[in-house]
Amino acid sequence: MNGRFGGRRAVVTGAATGIGAAIARRLADEGAHVVVADIDAQGAGEIAREIGGTAVKLDVTDPAAVHAALGGEPFDVLVNNAGIDDWGWFTDVTPQRWRRLLAVNVEGTFACTQAVLPGMQRAGYGRIVTVSSEAGRIGSKGDAVYAAAKAAVIGFTKSIARENARFGITANCVAPGPTETPMVQSIREKDGKVLAAMIAGTQLNRLGTTGEIAAGVAFLAAPEASYVTAETLGVSGGMGLGA
Asked: Is the pLDDT of residue 243 over 80?
């Protein structure tokens, strides 16, 4: 298949909706065969049929299931996108909410990366892109747990990049700002003022689109990004600059 991902196999987690679905579409449009992995089997199936990919029902918090699903035939590209948020003031956060967010956002990234790495190492090639967040770099009011989780995957990615450079594997993060997704819609419904403040914190004064995030991921996942590793690419309308 033509395109810069022609002949490549990619897996995108959390790909049934939002940013993950946009990434799956973008990689498929550029020639990749995409495994659409999501706990939502119906949604994953719909995206897979649309792009000519393969759907896999996957709970990233279940390491055994992750290794069974992803540890077989090697992948050229892994996009760790599966993630959840549960916006709320830190004083209201329960230990259960804390553990749930870390399980999906951090432990899920750990499990998926560990499942695909041996195949990439044997092949001498791999691109790992993890969707973090500007919240993980600058913090986020009302989102302390999510920010902590997204900071964790940045540190994790830098370490994976160091360990695997000798195998021809790169590992990078994309850090979206506020983006028009179901997750951001939930913040709008809980407290519209908070979302307005997030948008005002960007230099472009608007929400990003899922397609804009997918473009950043596609760059880092592409063969030509061979000299880019251990980086975090902000796709956030300049949010990291502050006011």
From this structure: no
